[in-house]
């Protein structure tokens, strides 16, 4: 079976890559020998990370997207009215259109991109790529996402959401929001984020990384923050000082080793978490107790490093998902409702601190609570892993049901 994955941003964003690797893991479990093609904004970058899958370039420019949309419409209109008319040979010279024509399923995996959060241009980009699937009469799915909120864009998102064959969301807030904008013509299912199923790196490689970075076997706290979250704090420099002061307190009082683990390393330098981590590192007094990870490891390797910590503090959602799926108590510094959505199953094992509420005392209070219970929390997360993995598998299982029902319908019609 041919599966076309759209919604990709960049594999330099380890969370974005984790979505794809987790979904591919679920789909490989559910279907027999599926073949994946990933539509990428940065194909040259992504082909190394997704080396076992085919990569095609997305329609990143609006004129190209409009051109492709017109070609697909012409093909659809004239083929339906005249079966002997074919434009397919000409369309196949465009790799992106060829991928849509040849696929069985189109799956949009975008995390939280189907919203107004990232601006109208971003939303339009994703709308076009969903439309390419719908206009080609392909089974089209939105896979375990946080959807909304929309303002005026809800008027053109509503018919698209009603038209796709299957929607799964990754939390109760998205489910409620879709109901509030009247996406009620089909069942919408609550699943778990796809990234929960991304495998970690293998044990031998993890041991290499642990030895290379001289990471002790206990009393390790991981921290992963971003310029994005720092700029949402009341003052960027105060955020740097807050985290540096926290690190010094933890190393002195708890006797911990701190891992600064970047979860986004590109695609542009200004998005690289290593920049802010290095700023924090230079402001720390006890540098000998800090491991500032500057290597650009794979998403699986980053997950492995997060998994050796005893407690994790992260502003990147999928860094927090990596920690929870590896049994690590987690504090998420949040700026978006998706945190409450995605972490709804982990109320006892995690804490969410809104960036507007963030201060030293709140951080320390939450760290103290989770640190005291860290071994009990790990046991709880190990037990909960089976439930979460099955919930993450749900999206792929529902897709299989949709495809089966379509086959049965075609057989009955004939």
Distance between the termini: 22 Å
Rg, nearest Å: 22 Å
Strand content: 5-15%
Low-confidence residue ranges = none
Polypeptide structure, described:
- Helix 1 (14-30) packs across helix 17 (374-413), helix 3 packs parallel to helix 6 and helix 11 (236-253) crosses helix 12.
- The two termini are 22 Å apart.
- The protein is elongated and about 75 Å long.
- It is α/β, with parallel strands linked by helices and 414 residues long.
- The protein has helices at 14-30, 43-49, 62-81, 88-91, 95-102, 120-135, 154-163, 172-180, 203-212, 227-232, 236-253, 273-283, 299-307, 317-325, 338-342, 360-372, 374-413, and strands at residues 2-6, 35-40, 54-57, 105-108, 139-145, 166-169, 189-190, 220-224, 257-260, 290-292, 311-314, 330-334, 350-354.
